[in-house]
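Figure 2 data, in text form.
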Amino acid sequence: MIDDTCVVRICEPQRRLELEAKADPFGAARIAMHLIPWAEHTLLQLDWHPLRGPGTRMHGLPVDYVVGIRNGAMLTKFARIAVREHNADTQDAPRPS
C-alpha cells in the first residue's frame, strides 16, 4: 500500500474528473478520467502524466507497465462500484403498475 492523497483539480459531473495524486516518495501525477457516451454504454478514458518526482525522469515502458497494472486494478474497483450503484438505483426505481 502507498500512503497517497488526491486533490480534485477539475470536476464536471458525469463528464470529466481530473485529480492530482501525490504518492510520496514517488512524487505526483495528474490523472484524467473522461466519460464518453457510446451507444447505450459509457466508456471510461483514463490518462495520466507524472508531474513531480522520479516518475518524471522514468516515464516510459517500465513505469507505464507498472502504472498499467495499478490502473487495471483501479478500473476493476470502479467497475464494481458502478455495477453496485446501478443495481441499487434500479432496485429503488418505481416499477410500472
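Caption note: The longest helix spans residues 61-92.
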